[in-house]
Amino acid sequence: MSPYEIVVLAFALAMDAVAVSLAEGLRLRRPSWRDALLIAGMFGLFQALMPVLGWALAFGFADEVSTATPWIAFGLLALIGGNMIKESFGEDEDHTTAVVTLRTVTPLAIATSIDAAAVGVTFGVLEVDVAPAVAVIGVITAVLSLGAVYLGARVGERLGSWAERVGGVILVLIGLRILLEHLL
């Protein structure tokens, strides 16, 4: 793969993370720098780690793992998105106190990066130099996710509780898309 192809691939892989970052921004409305950097950093980290995992699995049992990953991604995103939708119908709390922790961000980072593991399998087949490729993927994902958190926050301030519903629907739809791409 050429460097140009890796950059294009990185942008494509980042889109799920960007959509979820946007949803998180919608939920938070006024994210702190710490929260935004944690979200962007975790998404970038997992987008970089998953191709390495896929690359390693390419030499072993990639077929067995690839059948379960869409179901895992769908389950995680549907659960988190459904919870966001449910919470949006509750009292309109102060979203500046919404908690962003490793525990809340890690499932999202895993769910949005599972497709990157499949890319890692192709890295093994195409004999791609993995280290620079995953660095590019991680950095591009982190930068785009950071911008998406703040874009979502700006939109979220204007939309109120509808923003959290939209964010939840986005997560459920991303999970459904991942599952349908696997099944069809």
TrEMBL record:
<keyword id="KW-0406">Ion transport</keyword>
<dbReference type="GO" id="GO:0005384">
    <property type="term" value="F:manganese ion transmembrane transporter activity"/>
</dbReference>
<dbReference type="InterPro" id="IPR003810">
    <property type="entry name" value="Mntp/YtaF"/>
</dbReference>
<dbReference type="Pfam" id="PF02659">
    <property type="entry name" value="Mntp"/>
</dbReference>
<comment type="function">
    <text>Probably functions as a manganese efflux pump.</text>
</comment>
<comment type="similarity">
    <text>Belongs to the MntP (TC 9.B.29) family.</text>
</comment>
<keyword id="KW-0812">Transmembrane</keyword>
<feature type="transmembrane region" description="Helical">
    <location>
        <begin position="6"/>
        <end position="26"/>
    </location>
</feature>
<keyword id="KW-0472">Membrane</keyword>
<keyword id="KW-0464">Manganese</keyword>
<keyword id="KW-1003">Cell membrane</keyword>
<protein>
    <recommendedName>
        <fullName>Putative manganese efflux pump MntP</fullName>
    </recommendedName>
</protein>
<feature type="transmembrane region" description="Helical">
    <location>
        <begin position="132"/>
        <end position="153"/>
    </location>
</feature>
<feature type="transmembrane region" description="Helical">
    <location>
        <begin position="105"/>
        <end position="126"/>
    </location>
</feature>
<feature type="transmembrane region" description="Helical">
    <location>
        <begin position="68"/>
        <end position="85"/>
    </location>
</feature>
<feature type="transmembrane region" description="Helical">
    <location>
        <begin position="162"/>
        <end position="180"/>
    </location>
</feature>
<dbReference type="InterPro" id="IPR022929">
    <property type="entry name" value="Put_MntP"/>
</dbReference>
<keyword id="KW-0813">Transport</keyword>
<feature type="transmembrane region" description="Helical">
    <location>
        <begin position="38"/>
        <end position="62"/>
    </location>
</feature>
<dbReference type="GO" id="GO:0005886">
    <property type="term" value="C:plasma membrane"/>
</dbReference>
<keyword id="KW-1133">Transmembrane helix</keyword>
